[in-house]
Amino acid sequence: MNVSAETEARSAQQPYDPRYDPLVNATPGQGRDYAPTYWVGTAGPPPADDGPVRGDLDVDVAVVGSGFTGLSAALFLAREHGIRATVLEANQTAWGCTSRNGGQGQNASGRLYRSQWIARWGRDVAVRLDREIREGFETFKSLVAEFPECEPQPGGHLYIAHRDKKMDFLRNEAQVMREVFGYDTRMLSRAEVHERYVRDAECSGALHEPDGIGVHPLKLAFAYQRAARALGVRIHTASPVQRFEGAKGRYLLHTPGGVVRARAVAFATGGYTSNALHPRLRNKILPILSNSLVTRVLSDDEIEATGFRTHEVITDTRTLRFYYRLLPDRRVQIGSRSSITGADAPHPRHLQLLIGGLHRKFPALRGIDIDYSWWGWVDVSHDMMPRITQPDPAEQVFYALGYGGNGVSFSAHAGRRLAQRVAGKAPPVLDLPIYAGELEYPNAFDLVRSPLLAPMRRLGQRFLYRWYYLRDERL
Predict the structure, then answer these.
(1) Given pLDDT bands bounded at 50, 70 and 90, which one contains residue 235?
(2) Same domain as 250, residue 221
(3) If we measure between CA atoms, which residue out of 276, 268, 273, 242 comes closest to residue 450?
(4) Phi, psi of 315 (to 5 degrees)
(5) What is the largest CA-CA distance in the chain?
(6) What pTM did the predictor assign?
């Protein structure tokens, strides 16, 4: 893409839409600007891309979505299989989940704990799944090491009990992780957490996991982008897929600028997956909003008052958990739940809920200026685990979805496995639950599969949020 074309594309950006809702809107827009996140504000100018699709194209592989998964899949297709994919992005590179998360890379994927893996699939499958997730974390670590501009903050993950009653749960998880999976997990008292890590006023104790890396997610995504394009990958922004058709090796993806004809298609659209994108993706995830903020830079006195002695990634034990950390420039980032619908997302009460959590944890930060506030959609699967799959063996259509808020690290490996599947390789892990079969809609909700009945799903979500609050805070 030449300089004049790049300038033209930048000037044609449409305003950010704070009310976008994947259950309401057929596409996330075309060429929209980024959400006003801290990551966007500090990543610097985006790397060059290939601009919008202009005219019909014949390609080998089309990847839909340019977040962590789509970019890593394109990168590994080129590096490991010699396939130069074409990435189609509706708006800007890494516009969705990848530029709106908390940057917490954990040795996890999905929302189930390892004890729940054992309960659901048995010990043998759980051990094999852990081996695969652990290999995924190593894939993530290798990319972070390759691209140090992403400002890595290694050290581990601190899982804080926000009430005394949650300590037994953490002790059980620590024991399972040590005895079944061989992790060096440690239980910490409230005093030990306050002395060595952070003075979270809600803390009753914590589980410490050795694996965890905080990153600047947009700088990491931009590094993926530069590396992929250097290998011949083409990345077309402002090119939403408006219609999909075709079968048996000839797939037509209709964009505003032309039709892209592909031998194989990989969908990596995360929480921004529209029900209109492809029949195999309809109603396979429940998009849920997460809210995030970043404070101004903390003073020395505020660092002392909050007791931050770590830059490790931290979460608490609420069902709708708070996740937070001290960033390299001494700001605090914290995130948690947000609105039910996109239309309600800008309401100030959702930011106030997050500010209230910050104040409860760190009373010394009451009244601190909030420099950045944003929200974004999380792709939560109905069984709480992701799928990196080929739903129909007769079709060259693939997807990787359903990380449930734990996609920062595992998306790198998901992209690698997705690339293997697209390239026709069959690694020996394809019988694991996250690779075998496709995302399913729970039978109890068959009556609300239709997008027209999405409000009923949202009503259920409202009741669940109230129950989670009662269970986490009152009962």
Answers:
(1) very high
(2) yes
(3) 276
(4) -135, 160
(5) 64
(6) 0.95
